[in-house]
Design brief:
Layout lengths: L10 E2 L6 E2 L2 H12 L10 E6 L2 E6 L6 H8 L18 E4 L2 E4 L11 E4 L1 H6 L3 H8 L9 H14 L5 H7 L12 H13 L1 H5 L1
Helix pairs in contact: 4-7
The structure holds FE2/S2 (inorganic) cluster (2 copies).
Length: about 200
């Protein structure tokens, strides 16, 4: 067993990094020199905007983005099917780009803007209605991932053709085999989103 009897504990001031040899000494220093300053943020704190709402959260290094939104924030629309980056069910939009939340660490999301299927629905995006109209789901477990991927695609390409849609959805898997319906719903949504559609 390692003998630690000669090791001395040292205390570093979180404000100015001065080092002290006892807790009493650092306590006296903080009170005397930094008493008016706010406490520094704990390590592993992230600031993230989710569906327009700002959050400041302390996260564990191993938390995935999926765990953060699903289990910590209670946004259960984002589904976890494979947990290995292979199915697309957990897709969310991070800073405008579709990403897999099972493969993204929460710590990587500091300062970023996140959109989940709940935000897309709350904004009244036509994809929601068109997905229902075109019967794009059976069990529905994969559906939020498809909707979020489709939303990210329409944001960058508002006038896609069927081939482009199929390519964009290439990473989303559906065990129920609803594939033929998705392009139909997405084309109908794109039509609704065209500027002239709103003025008719
Ligand atoms: S659950 Fe993330 S890709 Fe399958
Ligand atoms: S609707 Fe069941 S997995 Fe896609």
């Amino acid at each position: 067993m390692t003998d630690r009897s000669n090791e001395q504990t040292r205390y570093a001031c979180p404000y100015c990094a001065s080092v002290f040899e006892s807790y009493e000494a650092i306590k006296a220093h903080v009170l005397a020199d930094h008493g008016e300053e706010p406490l520094p943020e704990p390590e592993d704190t992230i600031h993230i905007t989710v569906n327009g709402q700002k959050y400041t959260m302390q996260v564990e290094p191993e938390w995935t983005l999926h765990y953060l939104i699903h289990d910590q924030l209670g946004l259960t629309g984002t589904k976890l099917m494979c947990d290995h980056g292979a199915c697309g069910s957990c897709t969310v939009i991070l800073n405008g780009k579709a990403v897999l939340s099972c493969m993204t660490l929460a710590l990587e999301c500091d300062g970023k803007i996140l959109e989940t299927v709940e935000g897309i629905a709350a904004a009244g995006h036509p994809l929601i209605e068109e997905y229902v109209k075109h019967h794009c789901m059976q069990c529905g477990y994969c559906t939020p991932g498809f909707v979020v991927t489709a939303k990210a695609m329409l944001d960058r390409n508002p006038d896609p053709d069927e081939k482009q849609i199929r390519a964009a959805l290439g990473g989303n898997l559906c065990r129920c085999g609803t594939y033929p319906q998705h392009p139909k719903a997405i084309l109908a949504s794109a039509k609704k989103l065209k500027p002239e559609a709103g003025s008719q």
